[in-house]
Amino acid sequence: MGPVTTDTSPVRRPPERRADGARFPRLTGLLRALRHDLFVFPVHPMPAWPRVTHPLLRRLPLILTVLLATDLAIPGAMLLAERLDLVWPLAAALSVAQTAPVVLALTRPMAAWWISLATALPYAIGLAVQDGGTPADGAPWPWAETQVMAHLAVTLIAAWRVAPRVYLAQWGITLLFGGALSLTVPPRAAVPDAAALLLFSAVGLAIVAAVRGRSEIRQQLKRQQALTEQERTRRTLLEERTRIARELHDVVAHHMSVIAVQAEAAPYRVADPPPELSDSFAGIRANALSALTELRHILGMLRSADPTPDGRRSPQPTLADIDELVANVRSAGLRIEASVTGVPRPLSRHLELSAYRIVQEALSNALRHAPGCRVEFELSYGPAGLGIRVANSPATAAVPPPDGAGHGVVGMRERAAVLGGALDIGPREDGWFEVTASLPLGKDEDA
Question: How many angstroms separate the CA atoms of 88 and 81, rounded?
Protein backbone atom coordinates (compact mmCIF):
# COMPACT_ATOMS: atom_id res chain seq x y z
CA MET A 1 0.00 0.00 0.00
CA GLY A 2 1.56 3.25 -1.16
CA PRO A 3 1.87 6.41 0.88
CA VAL A 4 -1.20 8.53 1.24
CA THR A 5 -0.80 11.99 -0.26
CA THR A 6 -2.95 14.93 0.57
CA ASP A 7 -3.51 17.72 -1.97
CA THR A 8 -3.41 20.99 -0.09
CA SER A 9 -3.60 23.27 -3.14
CA PRO A 10 -6.60 25.58 -3.13
CA VAL A 11 -9.64 24.35 -4.99
CA ARG A 12 -10.40 26.49 -8.03
CA ARG A 13 -14.09 27.17 -8.24
CA PRO A 14 -15.71 28.16 -11.50
CA PRO A 15 -16.39 31.87 -11.68
CA GLU A 16 -19.81 32.78 -10.48
CA ARG A 17 -22.14 34.17 -13.03
CA ARG A 18 -22.78 37.81 -12.37
CA ALA A 19 -26.09 39.47 -12.57
CA ASP A 20 -27.33 40.91 -15.87
CA GLY A 21 -25.43 43.97 -16.84
CA ALA A 22 -22.59 43.42 -14.35
CA ARG A 23 -20.15 42.19 -16.99
CA PHE A 24 -20.78 45.03 -19.44
CA PRO A 25 -22.00 47.99 -17.40
CA ARG A 26 -21.38 50.52 -20.18
CA LEU A 27 -23.31 48.52 -22.76
CA THR A 28 -26.16 47.94 -20.33
CA GLY A 29 -26.29 51.61 -19.44
CA LEU A 30 -26.27 52.58 -23.12
CA LEU A 31 -29.13 50.19 -23.92
CA ARG A 32 -31.18 51.49 -21.00
CA ALA A 33 -30.63 55.08 -22.05
CA LEU A 34 -31.50 54.20 -25.66
CA ARG A 35 -34.69 52.44 -24.59
CA HIS A 36 -35.65 55.48 -22.55
CA ASP A 37 -34.95 57.82 -25.47
CA LEU A 38 -36.91 55.70 -27.97
CA PHE A 39 -40.03 55.03 -25.92
CA VAL A 40 -40.42 58.21 -23.88
CA PHE A 41 -42.07 61.07 -25.75
CA PRO A 42 -41.21 64.39 -24.09
CA VAL A 43 -42.14 67.73 -25.59
CA HIS A 44 -39.24 69.50 -27.33
CA PRO A 45 -40.32 73.08 -28.06
CA MET A 46 -38.97 74.58 -31.23
CA PRO A 47 -35.74 76.50 -30.49
CA ALA A 48 -36.19 80.24 -30.75
CA TRP A 49 -34.20 82.23 -33.27
CA PRO A 50 -32.55 84.95 -31.19
CA ARG A 51 -31.77 87.22 -34.14
CA VAL A 52 -35.26 87.04 -35.67
CA THR A 53 -37.81 89.44 -34.22
CA HIS A 54 -40.62 89.35 -36.80
CA PRO A 55 -43.38 87.00 -35.55
CA LEU A 56 -44.00 85.56 -39.02
CA LEU A 57 -40.35 84.70 -39.56
CA ARG A 58 -40.10 83.16 -36.10
CA ARG A 59 -42.84 80.71 -37.16
CA LEU A 60 -41.19 79.96 -40.49
CA PRO A 61 -40.31 76.31 -39.61
CA LEU A 62 -43.94 75.62 -38.68
CA ILE A 63 -45.20 77.25 -41.89
CA LEU A 64 -42.78 75.29 -44.08
CA THR A 65 -43.62 71.94 -42.48
CA VAL A 66 -47.37 72.59 -42.82
CA LEU A 67 -46.90 73.41 -46.50
CA LEU A 68 -44.80 70.27 -47.00
CA ALA A 69 -47.33 68.06 -45.22
CA THR A 70 -50.18 69.54 -47.28
CA ASP A 71 -48.25 69.13 -50.51
CA LEU A 72 -47.66 65.46 -49.69
CA ALA A 73 -51.16 64.72 -48.34
CA ILE A 74 -53.09 65.60 -51.52
CA PRO A 75 -51.21 63.38 -53.99
CA GLY A 76 -50.87 60.75 -51.27
CA ALA A 77 -54.64 60.52 -50.96
CA MET A 78 -54.95 60.10 -54.72
CA LEU A 79 -52.35 57.32 -54.76
CA LEU A 80 -53.99 55.46 -51.88
CA ALA A 81 -57.44 55.71 -53.44
CA GLU A 82 -56.17 54.39 -56.76
CA ARG A 83 -53.85 51.60 -55.61
CA LEU A 84 -55.79 50.35 -52.60
CA ASP A 85 -59.18 50.94 -54.20
CA LEU A 86 -60.34 53.03 -51.20
CA VAL A 87 -63.16 55.52 -51.01
CA TRP A 88 -61.95 59.13 -51.08
CA PRO A 89 -62.65 60.02 -47.38
CA LEU A 90 -60.81 56.95 -46.14
CA ALA A 91 -57.86 57.55 -48.48
CA ALA A 92 -57.70 61.21 -47.42
CA ALA A 93 -57.76 60.29 -43.71
CA LEU A 94 -54.97 57.73 -44.16
CA SER A 95 -52.88 60.20 -46.18
CA VAL A 96 -53.27 62.89 -43.51
CA ALA A 97 -52.22 60.36 -40.85
CA GLN A 98 -49.10 59.60 -42.90
CA THR A 99 -48.08 63.23 -43.47
CA ALA A 100 -49.17 64.87 -40.19
CA PRO A 101 -46.05 63.56 -38.35
CA VAL A 102 -43.98 66.01 -40.41
CA VAL A 103 -45.57 68.86 -38.44
CA LEU A 104 -45.68 66.93 -35.17
CA ALA A 105 -41.91 66.29 -35.39
CA LEU A 106 -41.23 69.95 -34.57
CA THR A 107 -42.41 69.50 -30.98
CA ARG A 108 -42.60 65.72 -30.40
CA PRO A 109 -39.95 64.16 -32.65
CA MET A 110 -40.00 60.66 -31.15
CA ALA A 111 -43.77 60.31 -31.17
CA ALA A 112 -43.91 61.65 -34.74
CA TRP A 113 -41.30 59.15 -35.92
CA TRP A 114 -43.12 56.13 -34.48
CA ILE A 115 -46.44 57.33 -35.95
CA SER A 116 -44.79 57.82 -39.35
CA LEU A 117 -43.36 54.32 -39.21
CA ALA A 118 -46.64 52.75 -38.09
CA THR A 119 -48.76 54.45 -40.76
CA ALA A 120 -46.76 52.64 -43.45
CA LEU A 121 -48.41 49.34 -42.49
CA PRO A 122 -51.89 49.94 -44.02
CA TYR A 123 -50.41 50.69 -47.44
CA ALA A 124 -47.96 47.78 -47.32
CA ILE A 125 -50.53 45.25 -46.13
CA GLY A 126 -53.28 46.55 -48.41
CA LEU A 127 -51.05 46.44 -51.48
CA ALA A 128 -49.85 42.93 -50.60
CA VAL A 129 -53.33 41.40 -50.30
CA GLN A 130 -55.00 43.33 -53.11
CA ASP A 131 -55.99 41.24 -56.10
CA GLY A 132 -54.17 38.22 -54.81
CA GLY A 133 -50.88 40.07 -54.53
CA THR A 134 -50.77 41.35 -58.12
CA PRO A 135 -51.11 45.13 -58.08
CA ALA A 136 -50.40 47.42 -60.96
CA ASP A 137 -46.92 47.12 -62.41
CA GLY A 138 -44.37 49.56 -60.99
CA ALA A 139 -46.15 50.26 -57.68
CA PRO A 140 -43.54 50.94 -54.94
CA TRP A 141 -43.69 48.76 -51.84
CA PRO A 142 -43.72 48.80 -48.79
CA TRP A 143 -43.84 52.63 -48.90
CA ALA A 144 -45.66 54.86 -51.31
CA GLU A 145 -43.81 57.77 -52.92
CA THR A 146 -45.37 60.35 -50.61
CA GLN A 147 -44.72 58.12 -47.60
CA VAL A 148 -41.02 57.92 -48.48
CA MET A 149 -40.72 61.71 -48.58
CA ALA A 150 -42.80 62.18 -45.40
CA HIS A 151 -40.87 59.57 -43.40
CA LEU A 152 -37.58 60.98 -44.66
CA ALA A 153 -38.59 64.47 -43.54
CA VAL A 154 -39.66 63.20 -40.11
CA THR A 155 -36.38 61.27 -39.73
CA LEU A 156 -34.25 64.32 -40.56
CA ILE A 157 -36.24 66.68 -38.32
CA ALA A 158 -35.99 64.21 -35.45
CA ALA A 159 -32.26 63.76 -36.09
CA TRP A 160 -31.77 67.49 -35.59
CA ARG A 161 -33.52 67.35 -32.21
CA VAL A 162 -32.34 64.06 -30.64
CA ALA A 163 -28.98 62.54 -29.70
CA PRO A 164 -26.88 60.77 -32.37
CA ARG A 165 -27.40 57.34 -30.80
CA VAL A 166 -31.16 57.84 -31.15
CA TYR A 167 -31.27 58.68 -34.85
CA LEU A 168 -28.80 55.87 -35.57
CA ALA A 169 -31.14 53.49 -33.76
CA GLN A 170 -34.06 54.90 -35.77
CA TRP A 171 -32.20 54.20 -39.01
CA GLY A 172 -31.56 50.63 -37.84
CA ILE A 173 -35.22 50.13 -36.90
CA THR A 174 -36.26 51.40 -40.34
CA LEU A 175 -33.87 48.88 -41.89
CA LEU A 176 -35.39 46.04 -39.86
CA PHE A 177 -38.92 47.24 -40.57
CA GLY A 178 -38.41 47.45 -44.33
CA GLY A 179 -36.50 44.18 -44.40
CA ALA A 180 -39.20 42.36 -42.46
CA LEU A 181 -41.92 43.59 -44.82
CA SER A 182 -39.83 42.79 -47.88
CA LEU A 183 -39.18 39.24 -46.68
CA THR A 184 -42.87 38.53 -46.04
CA VAL A 185 -45.33 38.15 -48.92
CA PRO A 186 -44.57 41.17 -51.14
CA PRO A 187 -46.64 41.87 -54.23
CA ARG A 188 -45.20 40.13 -57.27
CA ALA A 189 -45.29 43.18 -59.54
CA ALA A 190 -44.30 45.78 -56.92
CA VAL A 191 -40.99 47.66 -56.88
CA PRO A 192 -39.20 47.52 -53.47
CA ASP A 193 -38.21 50.99 -52.26
CA ALA A 194 -36.79 50.22 -48.80
CA ALA A 195 -33.22 50.41 -50.09
CA ALA A 196 -33.84 53.82 -51.65
CA LEU A 197 -35.34 55.18 -48.41
CA LEU A 198 -32.44 53.82 -46.37
CA LEU A 199 -29.91 55.32 -48.79
CA PHE A 200 -31.57 58.76 -48.82
CA SER A 201 -31.94 58.76 -45.04
CA ALA A 202 -28.30 57.72 -44.56
CA VAL A 203 -27.09 60.60 -46.74
CA GLY A 204 -29.45 63.02 -44.97
CA LEU A 205 -28.36 61.84 -41.52
CA ALA A 206 -24.70 62.26 -42.51
CA ILE A 207 -25.39 65.86 -43.58
CA VAL A 208 -27.34 66.56 -40.38
CA ALA A 209 -24.53 65.08 -38.27
CA ALA A 210 -21.92 67.25 -40.04
CA VAL A 211 -23.96 70.44 -39.69
CA ARG A 212 -24.79 69.70 -36.04
CA GLY A 213 -21.18 68.91 -35.24
CA ARG A 214 -19.95 72.16 -36.78
CA SER A 215 -22.64 74.12 -34.97
CA GLU A 216 -21.74 72.54 -31.64
CA ILE A 217 -18.05 73.25 -32.19
CA ARG A 218 -18.82 76.89 -32.97
CA GLN A 219 -20.91 77.17 -29.82
CA GLN A 220 -18.13 75.59 -27.79
CA LEU A 221 -15.63 78.04 -29.29
CA LYS A 222 -17.93 80.96 -28.46
CA ARG A 223 -18.20 79.72 -24.88
CA GLN A 224 -14.44 79.42 -24.69
CA GLN A 225 -13.99 82.94 -26.07
CA ALA A 226 -16.54 84.19 -23.55
CA LEU A 227 -14.60 82.49 -20.75
CA THR A 228 -11.40 84.07 -22.05
CA GLU A 229 -13.06 87.47 -22.08
CA GLN A 230 -14.34 86.92 -18.55
CA GLU A 231 -10.87 85.98 -17.38
CA ARG A 232 -9.42 89.04 -19.13
CA THR A 233 -11.97 91.25 -17.39
CA ARG A 234 -11.27 89.56 -14.07
CA ARG A 235 -7.52 90.01 -14.56
CA THR A 236 -7.99 93.69 -15.37
CA LEU A 237 -10.11 94.14 -12.27
CA LEU A 238 -7.53 92.34 -10.16
CA GLU A 239 -4.77 94.55 -11.57
CA GLU A 240 -6.74 97.66 -10.68
CA ARG A 241 -7.46 96.36 -7.21
CA THR A 242 -3.78 95.50 -6.75
CA ARG A 243 -2.80 99.00 -7.84
CA ILE A 244 -5.25 100.53 -5.37
CA ALA A 245 -3.94 98.24 -2.62
CA ARG A 246 -0.38 99.24 -3.42
CA GLU A 247 -1.24 102.95 -3.29
CA LEU A 248 -3.08 102.51 0.00
CA HIS A 249 -0.15 100.64 1.47
CA ASP A 250 2.46 103.12 0.27
CA VAL A 251 0.55 106.22 1.38
CA VAL A 252 -1.91 105.47 4.14
CA ALA A 253 -0.05 102.65 5.88
CA HIS A 254 3.20 104.63 5.88
CA HIS A 255 1.65 107.73 7.41
CA MET A 256 -0.34 105.74 9.97
CA SER A 257 2.84 103.93 11.04
CA VAL A 258 4.62 107.26 11.45
CA ILE A 259 1.73 108.61 13.52
CA ALA A 260 1.83 105.55 15.80
CA VAL A 261 5.58 105.84 16.33
CA GLN A 262 5.44 109.59 17.00
CA ALA A 263 2.53 109.20 19.40
CA GLU A 264 4.48 106.56 21.33
CA ALA A 265 7.66 108.67 21.50
CA ALA A 266 6.07 112.06 22.18
CA PRO A 267 5.60 111.69 26.00
CA TYR A 268 9.29 110.90 26.42
CA ARG A 269 10.32 114.17 24.77
CA VAL A 270 8.73 116.23 27.56
CA ALA A 271 9.93 116.20 31.14
CA ASP A 272 7.18 115.20 33.53
CA PRO A 273 4.30 115.35 31.03
CA PRO A 274 0.86 115.71 32.57
CA PRO A 275 -1.25 112.53 32.69
CA GLU A 276 -3.81 114.02 30.34
CA LEU A 277 -1.12 114.49 27.67
CA SER A 278 0.21 110.95 28.08
CA ASP A 279 -3.32 109.53 27.86
CA SER A 280 -3.99 111.56 24.75
CA PHE A 281 -0.87 110.30 22.99
CA ALA A 282 -1.67 106.74 24.08
CA GLY A 283 -5.12 107.09 22.54
CA ILE A 284 -3.62 108.44 19.31
CA ARG A 285 -1.23 105.46 19.14
CA ALA A 286 -4.03 102.94 19.84
CA ASN A 287 -6.23 104.44 17.14
CA ALA A 288 -3.35 104.42 14.64
CA LEU A 289 -2.59 100.75 15.36
CA SER A 290 -6.29 99.86 15.05
CA ALA A 291 -6.45 101.68 11.72
CA LEU A 292 -3.38 99.78 10.50
CA THR A 293 -5.00 96.47 11.45
CA GLU A 294 -8.18 97.33 9.54
CA LEU A 295 -6.14 98.56 6.60
CA ARG A 296 -4.28 95.23 6.42
CA HIS A 297 -7.62 93.40 6.20
CA ILE A 298 -8.78 95.70 3.41
CA LEU A 299 -5.50 95.27 1.51
CA GLY A 300 -5.80 91.50 1.83
CA MET A 301 -9.30 91.61 0.36
CA LEU A 302 -8.18 93.84 -2.51
CA ARG A 303 -5.25 91.57 -3.36
CA SER A 304 -7.38 88.40 -3.24
CA ALA A 305 -7.81 86.76 -6.63
CA ASP A 306 -10.79 84.66 -5.54
CA PRO A 307 -13.99 86.25 -6.92
CA THR A 308 -16.30 83.92 -4.99
CA PRO A 309 -16.75 84.15 -1.21
CA ASP A 310 -16.90 80.40 -0.71
CA GLY A 311 -13.65 79.83 -2.56
CA ARG A 312 -15.03 77.38 -5.10
CA ARG A 313 -12.97 77.16 -8.28
CA SER A 314 -13.47 75.45 -11.62
CA PRO A 315 -10.74 73.09 -12.92
CA GLN A 316 -7.97 75.05 -14.61
CA PRO A 317 -6.69 73.91 -18.02
CA THR A 318 -3.23 72.40 -18.47
CA LEU A 319 -1.00 71.53 -21.40
CA ALA A 320 -2.94 68.27 -21.73
CA ASP A 321 -5.83 70.40 -23.05
CA ILE A 322 -3.78 72.02 -25.83
CA ASP A 323 -4.94 69.47 -28.41
CA GLU A 324 -8.58 70.30 -27.69
CA LEU A 325 -7.83 74.02 -27.97
CA VAL A 326 -6.12 73.51 -31.34
CA ALA A 327 -9.00 71.34 -32.56
CA ASN A 328 -11.53 74.01 -31.60
CA VAL A 329 -9.81 76.83 -33.47
CA ARG A 330 -9.18 74.54 -36.45
CA SER A 331 -12.90 73.68 -36.58
CA ALA A 332 -13.69 77.41 -36.55
CA GLY A 333 -11.86 77.77 -39.86
CA LEU A 334 -8.33 78.62 -38.71
CA ARG A 335 -5.66 76.79 -40.70
CA ILE A 336 -3.19 75.74 -38.05
CA GLU A 337 -0.14 73.50 -38.10
CA ALA A 338 0.72 72.30 -34.59
CA SER A 339 3.87 70.50 -33.55
CA VAL A 340 5.50 69.41 -30.29
CA THR A 341 9.27 68.97 -29.93
CA GLY A 342 11.14 67.43 -27.06
CA VAL A 343 9.81 64.95 -24.55
CA PRO A 344 6.49 66.07 -22.99
CA ARG A 345 6.45 65.76 -19.22
CA PRO A 346 4.37 67.07 -16.34
CA LEU A 347 5.31 70.59 -15.23
CA SER A 348 4.18 72.75 -12.37
CA ARG A 349 0.55 73.79 -12.24
CA HIS A 350 1.37 77.50 -12.55
CA LEU A 351 3.67 76.99 -15.53
CA GLU A 352 1.19 74.81 -17.43
CA LEU A 353 -1.68 77.21 -16.77
CA SER A 354 0.36 80.23 -17.88
CA ALA A 355 1.55 78.41 -21.02
CA TYR A 356 -2.00 77.38 -21.90
CA ARG A 357 -3.31 80.92 -21.45
CA ILE A 358 -0.51 82.40 -23.58
CA VAL A 359 -1.28 79.96 -26.40
CA GLN A 360 -5.02 80.56 -26.03
CA GLU A 361 -4.61 84.33 -26.21
CA ALA A 362 -2.27 84.13 -29.21
CA LEU A 363 -4.62 81.86 -31.16
CA SER A 364 -7.63 84.02 -30.25
CA ASN A 365 -5.81 87.13 -31.48
CA ALA A 366 -4.96 85.40 -34.77
CA LEU A 367 -8.58 84.30 -35.16
CA ARG A 368 -9.92 87.80 -34.44
CA HIS A 369 -7.37 90.07 -36.07
CA ALA A 370 -6.18 87.99 -39.07
CA PRO A 371 -9.20 86.25 -40.67
CA GLY A 372 -8.24 83.58 -43.18
CA CYS A 373 -4.63 83.42 -42.01
CA ARG A 374 -2.43 80.35 -41.64
CA VAL A 375 -1.01 79.66 -38.19
CA GLU A 376 2.09 77.77 -37.12
CA PHE A 377 2.12 76.64 -33.50
CA GLU A 378 5.09 74.96 -31.85
CA LEU A 379 5.50 73.78 -28.26
CA SER A 380 9.03 72.75 -27.34
CA TYR A 381 10.10 70.98 -24.15
CA GLY A 382 13.69 71.77 -23.27
CA PRO A 383 15.94 70.71 -20.38
CA ALA A 384 15.73 74.17 -18.78
CA GLY A 385 12.36 75.49 -19.86
CA LEU A 386 9.31 75.46 -22.10
CA GLY A 387 9.23 77.27 -25.43
CA ILE A 388 6.12 78.56 -27.21
CA ARG A 389 5.88 79.93 -30.74
CA VAL A 390 2.65 81.05 -32.42
CA ALA A 391 3.01 82.73 -35.83
CA ASN A 392 0.25 83.73 -38.24
CA SER A 393 0.34 84.90 -41.84
CA PRO A 394 -1.33 88.16 -42.94
CA ALA A 395 -5.12 88.25 -43.11
CA THR A 396 -6.77 87.16 -46.37
CA ALA A 397 -10.25 88.48 -45.46
CA ALA A 398 -11.65 91.73 -44.18
CA VAL A 399 -10.35 92.55 -40.71
CA PRO A 400 -13.11 93.63 -38.29
CA PRO A 401 -12.56 96.93 -36.46
CA PRO A 402 -11.04 96.63 -32.97
CA ASP A 403 -13.59 96.51 -30.15
CA GLY A 404 -11.35 98.13 -27.55
CA ALA A 405 -7.81 98.52 -26.30
CA GLY A 406 -7.75 95.05 -24.74
CA HIS A 407 -5.40 93.61 -22.19
CA GLY A 408 -4.45 90.32 -23.81
CA VAL A 409 -0.86 91.26 -24.67
CA VAL A 410 -0.38 92.81 -21.23
CA GLY A 411 -1.71 89.64 -19.63
CA MET A 412 0.67 87.44 -21.64
CA ARG A 413 3.65 89.59 -20.65
CA GLU A 414 2.63 89.48 -17.00
CA ARG A 415 2.26 85.70 -17.02
CA ALA A 416 5.71 85.28 -18.54
CA ALA A 417 7.24 87.82 -16.15
CA VAL A 418 5.78 86.14 -13.06
CA LEU A 419 7.53 82.90 -14.03
CA GLY A 420 10.79 84.71 -14.79
CA GLY A 421 10.44 84.14 -18.53
CA ALA A 422 10.49 86.31 -21.63
CA LEU A 423 7.83 87.14 -24.22
CA ASP A 424 8.45 88.67 -27.66
CA ILE A 425 5.53 89.90 -29.78
CA GLY A 426 5.74 91.62 -33.14
CA PRO A 427 5.80 91.34 -36.95
CA ARG A 428 8.49 89.49 -38.87
CA GLU A 429 10.27 90.59 -42.02
CA ASP A 430 8.15 88.29 -44.21
CA GLY A 431 4.91 89.94 -43.01
CA TRP A 432 3.95 87.29 -40.48
CA PHE A 433 3.09 88.14 -36.89
CA GLU A 434 4.83 86.05 -34.26
CA VAL A 435 4.49 85.45 -30.52
CA THR A 436 7.38 83.64 -28.82
CA ALA A 437 7.64 82.84 -25.13
CA SER A 438 10.37 81.21 -23.07
CA LEU A 439 9.22 79.96 -19.66
CA PRO A 440 11.97 78.59 -17.39
CA LEU A 441 11.39 75.61 -15.12
CA GLY A 442 11.25 76.04 -11.37
CA LYS A 443 13.95 74.75 -9.05
CA ASP A 444 11.80 71.79 -8.08
CA GLU A 445 11.38 70.78 -11.72
CA ASP A 446 14.99 70.81 -12.82
CA ALA A 447 16.21 67.40 -13.84
Answer: 6
